[in-house]
Amino acid sequence: MAIEVNPLHVYSSYNYIFTFAVLTKDEINFPDETYIGDKPQLEIFRSGGKSEGFVSTVFEEQIGGKLEYFIEDVEIEGIVVPNTRTRLTNATNISFQVVEPYSMGLFLQTLQIAALQAGYTNYLQAPFLLTIEFVGFDDDGKPVTVDKDGKTLNLQRKIPLKLTNAEFNVSGGGTRYDVTAIPWNEQALIDQVDRTYTDITVTGKNVVEILQTGPESLTTVMNGRYEELRAEGNFPVADELVITFPNDIATSSSSVAKNGAVDKGATVAPQKSGSNLFGNIAKGVVGGIIGGAVAGQRNIGQNALAGGIAGALNKTIEQIKKKRFSLIPPKSNYGLLPDKISNLLYESNLFGGLSTFWGGTLGVFSPHDLRNWPIEFSDLKPYYSFISKKIFITRPSENIFGDISSIYFQEQIKTPSIVNKLHSAINSSSSKDGFSFKSGYPMLAASFTDLEHYNCEYPGKCKPSCKNHSTFKTYEYFNKIMKENDNIKYFNNSVEKIDTKYPLVYFHNGEKKLFDKIYLCSGAINTSKILLNSFNIKDGLKITDNGLIQFPIFSLNEFSAIKGTDNFSLTNLIIKSYSDNGLSINQWQVMQVYEYLFEYLFPTYLSSIKNKLYRVLKDRVLILRGYTDHEEGNIYNINKDRYSNFILDCHRDSKKNNLYSSASSLKKILSKNNFRSIPLLNVKSKTSGHYGSSIPYKEGFFGVPINGELLKNVFVCDSSVFNSMPSTSPTFTIMANAARTAELSFNKY
Fold first, then answer.
1. Is this model's pTM higher than 0.90 or not?
2. For residues 93 and 182, is the Cβ–Cβ distance under 8 A?
3. Distance from the Cα of residue 347 to its chain's centroid
4. What distances in angstroms separate CA 374 from CA 77, 161, 722, one per listed residue?
5. Core vs surface per residue 658-682: b (16+ CB within 10 A) or e
């Protein structure tokens, strides 16, 4: 057996550089992909001096400078012979001194700040990394590199540590810290971890059965015990033990993920894979795609309805009046309101996502809408058809939506005379100021005839909540298919991040689960948050939001409402504006005034006046909502600050020139048909709620392929991958593209 030559003996002299850093969870779990081949993200000090990227305290930021820490007297004690203290390992004790010459206590502050940035509660929980780098010199004092067989030798040693103690003394020379530590993996030997407090019995025919797969394996017994402790109230969340048998001893081996897929002894059970779109996974994707975070934080079921419709509506109104979002009240659902990020964009942590609050309007993207995409309308057409058979869709009266020949419809909605009058006025008008207009009755994901739902009774209360549950909601769809299929599970938790190497999901409560495939369907905002937590994206991600303006119009025509009915406050009519070249550039949604608006605008003590005014105006006033395409929409940048908080900045607040010009032309046409608007009254909304394009296909930071596979077996299925956000309502296309992605995920090309 040859004796390995110490490479340092080649040098005439040598020195060493110490670097001390904190390791993130990804770094400590996957060293080969992180700090082994590169430097750690969060460095604390280096004996050769700090750089700009080092962790700093608030004091350093205030003074505009960097403090220096110096390391001395590093001792690494290795014990060759096992004893009662080390048991059967060659345990190592590590100690060193840190000198803080110009201040007191800031080194401990730096440790704590670094630990928080790495995702830990305090520095005693965090793993640290001590790097020893040797630098050699020749006889002339010049630095040299020792080569062997044409390769530079590794003259670094990197030791992950757990701090066990830190004491400090202050003198005229500054502060001196005596730090002791143990290698990170040797935590397994301390009594709090190593001792078994409950006797257990494991059986099996071989090692795999004993440790992993057997009905009485170590994983089965221990995980069952952890679950018992959780049920007894001793743990808020049960721990989870997973044992795998990698084929490669390297930490970078993909065998961990492979073994995880068959790890029957662990509590993470693999999902059943289907072979086609129409399987259970596709159902889940389709059902959850509208806005939403499948991993929501709050479940709205029957409990949300327990107080009755009237009580919930009153609660909604009072909540909204306190917040005063805007002149036009926000959409709501039985007393629940969407959240806002940076007081700009809506987001939802509810089961069902933003579909809990949406207006049910559907549209089909035209070839012009898809002009900047690497996919075509023909790629989406069969999936529009597929979705139309899964949800209820009202029949449009005219084909202003492009090719809808393959879509399955219900009956057409009933609209009052004022809407029918406007419809005729628009379609009989000529071009004005370079714009032309066409209107048609909308496609709505609302049940007017479906026997599985209560039919719409036209009560005019759609905005706060559909009392008959006629409007399609993702959470209702999921609840239905989960009752029908045991393979579809709902985890009432929120996703923190995904693993960049394996199909592994980390949850906010500390849990993690391994899956065969992961589908990101959390909406552009929450998907962006997950990706920012998962990847080092220095410049953040950009989110496109369609611009939106609204204004009322008053009818001077003689008419009457539909006999025996009231109205409904979803979209009653779609108006599209076209440029001189015949291309659609804006979309307008028309709805009647609704009781919810009057409840929002009038104080309680004016309720009698409010009721009378509403009865007079509900058949004489319409509200028009105009949406821009992506070229005039707002662009926001979402990123994380140094404390890992999400921040949102408006990158471009569009002037919406085409939209305002289109509104002006539309008002002129309406004026000729006895419809009046209030001059200059265009209510500009901060957001339309139509978000997307943060990681577009074949562009941007990720360059996602058109099958949506962001990482191996990780697929993006929401509007994040859209290459643009046309003025057309995006929901139908989100759902169709999700179905397309689901099918491609089982037939990769």
1. no
2. yes
3. 10
4. 60, 48, 10
5. bbbbbbebbbebbeebebebeeeeb
Report the b/e string of 13-50 with b at 16+ CB within 10 A: ebeeebbbbbbbbbbbbbbeebbeeeebbbbbbbbeeb
How would you class 388 by CB atoms within 10 Å of its CB: exposed for 0-12, middle for 13-18, buried for 19 or more? buried
Question: For residue 178, what are the β-bridge partners?
Answer: 97, 167
Q: What is the mean pLDDT of each run of 10 residues along the chain (749 residues)?
A: 69 86 88 83 79 66 70 84 61 86 84 87 88 84 67 75 89 87 82 69 85 82 80 72 65 38 29 33 30 32 32 48 54 64 72 78 90 93 92 81 84 82 88 85 79 58 67 83 81 84 86 88 90 89 88 75 59 87 82 75 68 75 87 84 80 70 88 81 78 91 91 92 92 94 79
- What is the rounded distance in angstroms from the CA atom of residue 717 to the CA atom of residue 277? 14
Could you tell me the end-to-end alpha-carbon distance of the chain, in angstroms, rounded to an integer?
Answer: 51
For the packed helices 731-746 and 377-388, what is the interaxial angle rounded to 10 degrees?
100
Please state, in angstroms and rounded to a whole number, the distance separating the CA atoms of residues 96 and 71. Answer: 7
Please list, in sequence order, all residues whose beta carbon lies within 8 angstroms of the beta carbon of residue 337, skipping any fewer than 6 positions away.
316, 319, 320, 323, 330
CA distance 295 to 699: 27
Strand, helix or coil for residue 702: coil
Tokens 């030798």 belong to which residue? 153
For residue 310, the Cα-to-chain-centroid distance in whole angstroms is 33
Residues 6+ apart with CB under 8 A from 482: 488, 489, 490
How many CB atoms are closer than 10 A to CB 216?
15
For 111, the token pair is 């440790």
Amino acid at 88: L
DSSP label of 708: -
The helix or strand, by DSSP H or E, that contains position 712, with its residue range, turns out to be none
* Residue type, position 320, single letter: I
d(CA 437, CA 626): 13
Where do we find the tokens 């319409």?
622
Give the bridge partners for 28, in sequence order.
none
For 585, the token pair is 């550039």
* Secondary structure of residue 157 in the 3-state scheme: strand
Q: How do strand 541-545 and strand 504-507 relate by DSSP bridges?
A: unpaired
